[in-house]
Amino acid sequence: MKRHLLVSCLILLLGAFVLAGCSQEKPSISTTNAQPSGIKIKGTVYTNELSGARGDVLSGAFVYLSGAATTSATATNSLGEYSFVNVTDGDYTIVASAEGHQRVSTTTVLIKSDLVDVTDNCVEVDDIVLDSSPVILSYSPTPNTEISRNPTFVVTFNETMDAFSVLPKLTITGIRASVSDNGSIPLAASWNASKTVLTLTTQATLPANTTCTLEVDSTSTAVDTAGYSLVAGQAGANELGQSLKADYSIDVGGLPGAPSNLSISTLNNKIITSDASGADFADAITGTNNVQLYWKQSTGEVSGYKVYVNDVSTNNYRYLTNTIACNPTVTLNQIMNALYGNVMASFDPLYTGKIPFVNNPLYVKVVAYNGDGESVSSEAAVSELNPPNVATGLASNFDAANPKGRTILTNGYDLPAITGSDTGVAYIVFNEPLNAASVTTSNITLEGSPGALVFSVLTQSSSDLGAAAADDFSIVRISSSDNITGKKVYIKGVTDLAGNSVAAGEQLTLN
Predict the structure, then answer these.
(1) Taking the CA atoms of the chain, what radius of gyration do you get in angstroms?
(2) Containing H/E element for 340?
(3) What is the pTM of this model?
(4) 179 pLDDT exceeds 80?
(5) Helix, strand, coil abundance in the chain, percent, nearest 5
(6) Which of 22, 96, 379, 482 has a C-alpha 20 to 30 A away from that of 3?
(7) Which domains does the chain have, with CATH numbers?
(8) Which strands make up the sheet holding 152-157, listed edge to edge?
(9) Confidence of residue 411 (pLDDT cuts 50, 70, 90)
(10) Residue 422 · residue 483 · CB < 8 Å
(11) Alpha-carbon gap, residue 228 to 159, rounded angstroms
(12) 408: closest CA among 468, 498, 347?
């Protein structure tokens, strides 16, 4: 039975529908309320040869009917035929796709509004012809998952591939503690007999805690044996086929081992020792001076190291820096900022008593870390080890040859000169501030045991001489009721602020 159907517009795109998702026109059908409902739409899908000639019917192709009134999907039968039944009034778009076929518009057929003879309410859509192209059916391991550091990739295609045209590439991205991870990892390739399964084996261990991308067709040359180019599937387009790239994250491999042999190796480029070449008080009070740390590389996979400092104990550490090196250098100002939020110039060793290496040891803690977390910490602590000594070179500043005295401090303290009549007074100058509690009659003795000895560390404004950052010495005043000129002085047990004691038995003669 024939009826008249008013078809306002039928647009059919003959040709391939790109799996990569090209934005092309799609077959569309427009019906009107003047026509009967329950329309049947049918058609046939064919393949297209590489030469351009029509090929065989395409069974199993996906055909999608989309419209405001009806949305439906079906697959072609063994004869390449599809149909949609009971289609209600409205505008529709037809999309056809199939595994390994493109959606590329090649021909447009337009049926204008007119009365068209149909049989049994059936509209026959012109043939749809799809170019055949190979696609990737699957990846192993599954993309966007974590893989081992020595993975094997398996790529499965729907067509027999030209093995020489497929040139895969594995690219590493990310950051590691001791290596540069950007670049390509060599791959060994092997195919199954039908050239549909490609197995890729890495020829180097992948760096942990990174990501990698496998590009199957890195040079855009991959074709099947019929000459069709490899194409990618389009996400959410109801098409079979995978992307030509697969991303993975690389396994970290557990927590790293703890750093070992941690040491604070140098201060102001001097080894921290007790001999004359070692770092001393003057090195520890200049904020721009460097402190170099050292530790042995942690075992396992390391993304970096976190360094913490403290000045009073081994808890409540403050974060100092993050590094990928095992021998970082930081300044004393950086350490002071981490500890107190200010630079060295804002502190002095006597009034504030907060100078690391001097008033307290510098405590350091280091942990290694990677994507799985942090290692057990390694800790160390050290103070400057150079003992105080008598600064004999300054003695001439305080004798009768300088009768007006000598301004010896940047804060203007004027130390009176010793004249010939001051036989019971002497000054001993040390090269750094002293612990005043150690300046006692038992630690400083005079030849002949003169009477009424008094020892004091001279002070001004409630601070010992040497408190200003530029003053790296201290002055002990000796007074006696007897004449002490020419007497020998024996010094032992006098300590600096770090607790270092003068050499046992050090002696000098008072002028």
Answers:
(1) 44
(2) helix 332-340
(3) 0.54
(4) no
(5) 5, 45, 50
(6) 96
(7) 2-131 (2.60.40.10), 136-250 (2.60.40.1220), 260-382 (2.60.40.10), 392-509 (2.60.40.1220)
(8) 136-140, 152-157, 197-202, 187-191
(9) very low
(10) no
(11) 10
(12) 468
